[in-house]
Write a sequence for this structure.
């Protein structure tokens, strides 16, 4: 795994990034002076309270939103337009109801003019990897919430993106489905050696998946601390019960308690 500051391996570089939104009631400073470097193949999670600018950061990293100040670079190039080398997954799967599971995945392939036959084969393979073999022709209303989110993950991966950006992808799911999807995601990411920027409210999810966890302060979001997670890989569900795992979770919890994000009565 790479580490921050390792220039040869730097994939995403965020430098002194701030974002101020102009609203009718004045300016809202969403992000304040964020800097970090993500290495190729590294899994970084951001955790922080609601409104601290996590989605804003993801949109800026995707090139979908301009920063107010500071710089975003990918492989040494300034990001100044929507990036085409990424896959994005949002909290809600946003599927077209009149297209089948495979049809929804193919949307991405069509938008990119990919070879139809090859893309469909890859779409089927991806669906099978996430446990949806046999569901290719089902429509969204025939799928559960977890299945829909799996389809949206496949759609984000159809074009072999280098960089996967995920904004609370499992937030709306039940605990068991969430556990399964976290395991599926780990397998996919490892197999494809993907670089992932992952946003979550769940401390356990962040610790489980990440090489490093970026803990954010309340708005305006600053980086409070970056925590290296040195648990061996692949991570297993049983690892969540270990003292090492508990210690990492505790560190993040303590930061939230210290900043008033959480209050014990
Ligand atoms: N388009 C916008 N115009 C004005 N203000 C915005 C806009 N988008 C976000 N904000 C404000 O910026 C701040 C950060 O929003 P953002 O959505 O990035 O937070 P978040 O950390 O993703 O929150 P959550 O965990 O609830 O998803 C919030 O105060 C929000 O109200
Ligand atoms: Mg958000």
């Amino acid at each position: 795994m790479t580490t921050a500051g390792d220039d040869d391996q730097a994939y995403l570089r965020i430098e002194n990034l701030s974002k101020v939104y102009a609203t009718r009631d004045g300016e809202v400073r969403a992000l304040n002076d964020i800097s970090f470097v993500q290495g190729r193949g590294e899994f970084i999670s951001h955790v922080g309270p609601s409104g601290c600018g996590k989605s804003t950061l993801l949109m800026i990293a995707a090139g979908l939103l301009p920063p107010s100040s500071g710089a975003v670079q990918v492989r040494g190039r300034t990001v100044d337009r929507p990036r085409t080398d990424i896959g994005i997954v949002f909290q809600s799967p946003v599927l077209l109801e009149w297209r089948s599971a495979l049809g929804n995945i193919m949307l991405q392939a069509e938008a990119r003019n990919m070879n139809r036959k090859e893309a469909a084969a890859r779409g089927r393979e991806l669906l099978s990897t996430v446990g949806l073999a046999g569901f290719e022709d089902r429509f969204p209303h025939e799928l559960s919430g977890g299945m829909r989110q799996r389809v949206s993950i496949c759609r984000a991966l159809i074009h072999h993106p280098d960089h996967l950006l995920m904004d609370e992808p499992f937030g709306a799911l039940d605990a068991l489905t969430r556990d399964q999807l976290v395991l599926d995601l780990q397998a996919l990411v490892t197999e494809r050696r993907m670089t992932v920027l992952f946003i979550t409210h769940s401390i356990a999810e962040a610790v489980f998946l990440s090489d490093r966890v970026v803990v954010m302060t309340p708005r305006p979001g600053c980086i409070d601390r970056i925590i290296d997670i040195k648990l061996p890989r692949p991570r297993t569900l049983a690892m969540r019960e270990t003292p090492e795992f508990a210690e990492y979770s505790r560190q993040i919890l303590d930061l939230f308690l210290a900043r008033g994000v959480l209050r014990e009565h």
In short: Confidence is low (pLDDT under 50) at residues 1-6. The pocket of adenosine-5'-triphosphate (ligand 1) is lined by residues 21, 23, 28, 30, 50-56, 219 (CB under 6 Å). The CA atoms of residues 82 and 193 lie 23 Å apart. Strands lie at 10-23, 26-39, 43-47, 69-74, 77-78, 86-89, 163-167, 195-200, 212-216, 223-228.
